[in-house]
Amino acid sequence: MTEELKASIALWGPPRSGKTAMLAALPVAANAQGWTVVGSSTGAFGDLTRTMIEEHKFNEATRVASDHTIVFRGDARLSDGTIERIMVRVSMRDVPGEAYNPPRRVADYAGPQQSAAGPSASGTLDKQLQDLVDHLAGCDALVFTFDPTRQASSGDTMTYLNDVLARLAHTMQEKGNYTDYLPQRLAVCVTKYDDYDVFAKARRAGFGTQDAQPPHLPRVRREHAGEFFRWLCEDDPDTHNAADVRAALLAYFKPGRIDYFVVSAVGFGLHDGRFDPDHDFSIVEPVPDGVTKITGKIRPVNVIEPFEWLAARMLEEQRA
Ligand SMILES: Nc1nc2c(ncn2[C@@H]2O[C@H](COP(=O)(O)OP(=O)(O)OP(=O)(O)O)[C@@H](O)[C@H]2O)c(=O)[nH]1
Ligand SMILES: [Mg+2]
After folding, report:
1. Number of compact structural domains in the chain
2. CATH code of the domain in which 251 resides
């Protein structure tokens, strides 16, 4: 009999870091891995996927938080190497990345003249952040999207972690559910692997491999993903203060409850039916002042894996 699990997961990451694209690519990724989506609660979820595969473009930036429930069935690999068929009902909240770092400090420091308007604007944003943190506190797992392109250009990933982590720890402590570490599992997803710069970094630093089977898609293997994330945070010359990002995640989440994935929502284009790093492999075409176009068939890389990992570990925990 197929074991059924329930997992509530929050997508967490800076604006434009690839949260919604990962969500939208899930059904395509699932099918490619022999998993199936056997139910979803909202038409809105289907629309996200349709935008990518039928309208050949990314979704607009998320404006309001939305909850999606997706039911998957598939084979999960347990720690002892056995494969088990599971059904997992994932409730997932996708929020605008801005919500993790509301610009309330502008109001806080607006000066005496504006302070009449300031506190209420500030208070509302504060309450919104606390509501979001309360939601995270009730989740089994968080999927954190680390976008190396954003970190290289604006270096601000840390600002979307600071308050969230401190508040989450406080909230869990109040619930009596925080001793040394937060109880949630954390999937750190390095996004946009297909981006030329990210791909080139993985290759240069020796983390990139290609699948043995056709079409030989590139991949940073699971066992190397954590080390690539470390490299991006500490050794990459464009890294800004990403070392703080990694240090904060390691300080709050329990070792063994974190895993790492190098992800591309859209994947790589092929040349003569196979991946060739020396031919143009990008299927992403930026549109000035518009949503980025997708110019080929999407082949998500490592999009289902974080969910499979979370489901397998939760199943083991449930049985222990
Ligand atoms: N090359 C590449 N670009 C991506 C990928 N995923 C997302 N992007 C780009 O990043 C942009 C933002 O992606 P979203 O998925 O909307 O990011 P988000 O984290 O949901 O952003 P907010 O909703 O603003 O918080 C997209 O419009 C694409 O331009 C990917 O896998 N590869
Ligand atoms: Mg979004």
Report:
1. 1
2. 3.40.50.300
Tens of pLDDT along 212-254? Answer: 999 999 999 999 999 999 999 999 998 899 999 999 999 999 9
- The domain of 29 spans 3-319
> What spacing in Å lies between the alpha carbon of 80 and ligand 1's midpoint?
35
Q: Which ligand is nearest to the CA of 14?
A: 1
- Length, in residues, of the chain: 320
**How many Å apart are CA 218 and CA 271, to the nearest integer?**
13
Q: What is the pLDDT of residues 23-35, one digit of tens each?
A: 999 999 999 999 9
Whole-number Å distance, alpha carbon 313 to ligand 2 midpoint, is: 26
Q: What is the pLDDT of residue 219?
A: 96
Best CA proximity match to 202, nearest among 227, 174, 168, 176: 227
- Give per-residue pLDDT as tens, 98-147: 999 987 554 454 444 444 444 456 678 788 899 999 999 999 999 999 99
DSSP one-letter code for 127 = H
pLDDT, position 134: 95
Q: Between the CA atoms of 198, 201, 206 and 210, what dihedral angle is there, to the nearest 10 degrees?
A: 30
Q: For residue 59, give the ligand 1 atom closest to its CA.
A: 16
Question: Structure tokens of 147?
Answer: 């976008």
